[in-house]
Amino acid sequence: MNETEKKKISKFLSLILRHQPEAIHLELDENGWADIEELREKSARNKINFTLEELDEVVETNNKKRFAFNEDKTKIRANQGHSIDVDLALTPQQPPEYLYHGTAEINIPSILEKGIEKRSRQHVHLSSDKETATKVGMRHGKPVILTIRTGLMLQEGIEFYLSENGVWLTDFVDAKYISK
């Protein structure tokens, strides 16, 4: 499978497993899992065809590790980034002292005033390194990397979670914890 085909399938999976399963009449369970055979069948009706081997290749080679299989590879889900209500069954984790958030320069005044909101997503996404945060920020315009004082947030009772693909998640980051 070439890179263009992989990218097409990955974008389709992101849409369906994170935001709009109803677009192909797919039902996810409460933890965001979709039955792979049902996903393949309903995707094919929408002219998106892939074999189990191709699906495996998309999951295994995705540089952001967006997707995961269950143990017996009968189900698949997105690791984070959902705008739909799913329970990823994450347990609170202790983050490092500092994490990073990449955003576009245009967003800085609002963030420094109101903090970082999850908006339509289930969580605010934070990165453990500046390089990843820069890549995230570049998707939205001229990137700015914000340093988040997560150690202090944790001391003040704010919970953090670590998704299977290494993205740190929390509900909200108050402006008092953010520095440019």
TrEMBL record:
Domain of life: Bacteria
Pfam families: PTS_2-RNA
Gene Ontology MF terms: NAD+ poly-ADP-ribosyltransferase activity; tRNA 2'-phosphotransferase activity
Listed SUPFAM superfamilies: ADP-ribosylation (SSF56399)
Coiled-coil blocks: none
Family: Belongs to the KptA/TPT1 family.
GO biological process: tRNA splicing, via endonucleolytic cleavage and ligation
Taxonomic placement: Bacteria, Pseudomonadati, Bacteroidota, Flavobacteriia, Flavobacteriales
Keywords: NAD, Transferase
Role summary: Removes the 2'-phosphate from RNA via an intermediate in which the phosphate is ADP-ribosylated by NAD followed by a presumed transesterification to release the RNA and generate ADP-ribose 1''-2''-cyclic phosphate (APPR>P). May function as an ADP-ribosylase.
The keyword NAD belongs to this UniProt entry's keyword annotation: yes
Name the record gives this protein: Probable RNA 2'-phosphotransferase
Keyword Heme set for record: no
EC number: 2.7.1.-
InterPro entries: Ptrans_KptA/Tpt1, RNA_2'-PTrans_C, RNA_2'-PTrans_KptA, RNA_2'-PTrans_N
Organism the protein comes from: Chryseobacterium daecheongense
